[in-house]
Amino acid sequence: MKPIKFLKYIMSLTLASLIVLSCDDSLNEPLENEVVLDGVDYTKTEDMFRLLTGAYAKLYELQWETYPLISVRGDDVDPNGDQEPLLATDVYRYDRSFWMYNSAWLNLYSDIIDYHANMEQIALYKEYAPNPAEADQYIAEIKVMRAFSLFQLSRLWGGLLITTSSSTDELYTTEVSSREEVMQHISADMDAAIPLLPNVHPNQRTDIPGGITRYTALAVKALANLELKNYQEVANATGQIIESGAFTLYPDFYELFKIPGKLSSENILELQYSDLGQGSGQNFSYLYEFFGPNDYAPAVAGAGGGWGFWEPTEKYIKFMLDRGETVRLETSVLFTEEGIAKIKSDPAYATLPAWVSNETRDGDIIGKTDGSPNPRSMFSSGKHYLPSNQLTPGRTVYGTNKNFICIRYAEILLMHAEALTQGATSSVMSADAALNEVRDRAGLGDISGVTLEDVLNEKYAEFAMEWGIRFYDLVRHNRTEELDYDVRNYIEEEDKYLPYPLAQLDLLPQLAEYEQN
Predict the structure, then answer these.
(1) For the residues of 376-402, what is the DSSP string, one character each?
(2) For the chain, N or C: smaller number of CB within 10 Å?
(3) Portion of the chain with pLDDT greater than 70, in percent
(4) Does residue 37 contact residue 18 with C-beta atoms inside 8 Å?
(5) Cβ(261)–Cβ(276) under 8 Å?
């Protein structure tokens, strides 16, 4: 099935014919039970695929507020805009009554409950399936989706309620599992899923182009074990991905995050969006306006800008300038004239490379063009930017048709290097070779005798504004002094996790008890 055909299929798909899913939108009510309709004909085993694609549709519905909350606390990004509690979260002043906390909690748990419902239904079809292994594969794919959601929840809140079914009544009586128990659960779940999944690169799947494979599950397992500091398990999982030979770094870092990089050889988990190549009509897109510049003069007349809510930090920009970075800095940061002037106001950066400009290589001008001050962002995220000349003619909304990358091969290489600097062993690739492969793509020279600091610096350069990777790296290695910049003062015992949302404490008292202990 071709990518556009598949995306058109899941956009038109509704599970209403199979499952009724009810969730109150007030954000202050518990998740409601899912009710399976009577009279489902489980001998129609072709409907298993509908359930699988319904799960993919859910995966691709990443709600706009969830990602910023996951990603906001590192020294690579600052939030802007009118969401004051999000600004406060960035400086470790947490407000459990902030609507975004509760929304992200419900978004991710709603996904998990839906995944359970789809897996349960597929299991009922399996009895009649001419090829039961197909049902096992579908369930394994959805397990990976569930694990990814659970992983993000635990990074935010630490201890969680591990669900085992689609019954939300279960949440009221489930004890809280520690962060370590959650990560162990994810790792074990991935071990069960891996042998049931296709042994190909995601872009080689013909039924679901870009769909989950055993390498996606290995990557999620590696991420969970990285949080546990089980470095040999990290090396083993990443080593299998490297040894497969299925993945390579996309040669053009700038285009990796744009239309040419869709379903590239580098991407291991990727949320897929499409306007179906048409200038009007049906469209399935992520809300990239959150990240986009609020003042913008596009090369293609009529193309829209963003909200100015997401800004790379000056600290990150200066770090990259000090390293002599070019393509990764150009890709990651969109400059305004005001932002360039602010960097230059520091005598150490009074002279910037000639390529630093408020005009992108695609001709889009970032920021105001009349010389007046920018009311919000002096910089914007280039990784969430789609040049106006890559929009399908007729489309004007910022970022339309751009995919959202979740896990890529560069992260696998650098996790492998990190594990080896922490005592793990590998016959697949050395830490030097893994790190230098990433540096080579960035146009930097090789280094030898790679240390943990080398790896963390490389990850900072490579993954700025991606999934909070920088924050979690620093916390994991007790290097949180890097988080104490400007007005920030990170305190490990207080700031590592967000407080549970107030609405959830009222519904799930075991959370309050766990938090107090």
Answers:
(1) S-SEEEGGG---GGGSPTT--STTTT-
(2) C
(3) 92
(4) yes
(5) no
